[in-house]
Amino acid sequence: MRSDAGTEIGQLFIMGMPGPDLDKETEYLIREDRIGGIILFSRNIEGPLQLAALCRDLQRAALKRQELPLFLAVDQEGGRVARLKEPFTGFPGNAALGMDEEPVKKAVEFATVTAREMKLVGLNMNLAPVVDVQRGEMDKHLEGRSFGEDPKRVALLGRTVVKHLQKNGIMAVAKHFPGLGRADVDPHFLLPTINISLEELERVNFPPFAAAVRAGVCGMMTSHALYPALDPERPATLSPIVLTEVLREKMGFKGLTITDDLEMGAIAAKWSVAEGALQSFQAGADILLICKDQGHVRQSLERLQRALREGSITTKRVSESLRRIKRMKKKYLGYREKISLAEVKEYFKRHA
């Protein structure tokens, strides 16, 4: 028989789903394995009314068996990484925002409008802002996604976005800790090695993340990259040095540590998704993100449950993450207004 911690291991996962409607497999994982959250992509989103109905159906499925609602997350950075398309309000992205004559004003506008529209359709977590500091030419997957090359400017705009998303009821997640600004390959396919000194990390990479921590950011997303100055053996996502010693103990971060997608080649090719999930959890991650294949979710759940039975993770460690997850859910999702399709229809008709 599983312990209470074992029955709630599903809360440690945010997973993807295949289409625009709640399917049986997704509903089963939510109901039986008590999955903690869903991340939505373009394949799941056809428009505001459909999205609001989907978010409503997902929360109804969860609340049949769970005390608290699901995290419902999207990547809504603006620019080319924006899952919510027209008629949602479009923004040009971080690089354009960073070069604007009134960048703080634009950051406030982006966060405020984005939060309003996300909340209206039932979303509650934005996997943004990117607070990586650009260092010369960025790898193609990060083009246009950084606020710029000045750590102070990146810190200012990052914490502004965090503050105004969260003030308006949407959890913000700063990414990709401890910074992908010097990555020369795409971690979707390969594991980058970022050969910079500890001095450069502390002077350039860390300040925007530290500013987000001081602003009370709900989540911090880990990077799938190797930083030899911090840990020569394990990428940040799997490194207790990076996730526990640096982020928790040195920076004082008390929110949710969330992995980048564990199906990316940087992790899956060497460790497998399930082993990556276990090692990341052991390193200090609270939420394990698996964006596409629900088979990987089931395998990872089973791997963590087996590790708990065998003692390679402890009930105490699981309880620590569950406590952080429940605290965040109670703070942001404890008193959610019901999703109103009529209000969604009226808002987007008015703003068309």
Radius of gyration from the alpha-carbon trace, in angstroms = 19 Å
Main pleated-sheet profile = 8 strands, parallel
**Count of DSSP strands:** 10
Order of helices and strands: HEHEHEEEHHEHEHEHEHHEHHH
Quaternary assembly: single chain
Q: How many helical elements?
A: 13
Report strand order across the widest sheet: 9-8-7-6-3-2-1-10
What is the CATH topology classification name? Answer: TIM Barrel
CATH superfamily: Glycoside hydrolase, family 3, N-terminal domain
Which spans of ≥5 residues are poorly predicted at pLDDT below 50? none
What's the CATH class label? Alpha Beta
Q: Summarize the amount of helix as a percent range.
A: 40-55%
**Mean pLDDT over all positions:** 94
What is the percentage of strand-forming residues?
A: 5-15%
Describe this entry's structure for a reader.
Helix content is 47%, strand content 10%. The protein starts with a helix and ends with a helix. α3 (48-63) packs antiparallel against α13 (341-350), α5 (103-121) packs parallel to α6 and α10 (273-283) crosses α11 (294-310). The chain has helices spanning 4-7, 24-33, 48-63, 94-99, 103-121, 151-167, 198-214, 240-250, 265-271, 273-283, 294-310, 315-333, 341-350, and strands at residues 13-15, 37-39, 71-74, 76-78, 81-82, 125-126, 171-177, 219-222, 256-258, 288-290. The longest helix has 19 residues, at 103-121. It is α/β, with parallel strands linked by helices and 352 residues long. The strands form two sheets. Strands 9-8-7-6-3-2-1-10 form an eight-stranded parallel beta sheet, with helices on both faces. Strands 4-5 form a two-stranded antiparallel ribbon. The protein has a single domain (4-350), classed as Glycoside hydrolase, family 3, N-terminal domain (TIM Barrel, Alpha-Beta Barrel). The chain is built from 13 helices and ten strands.
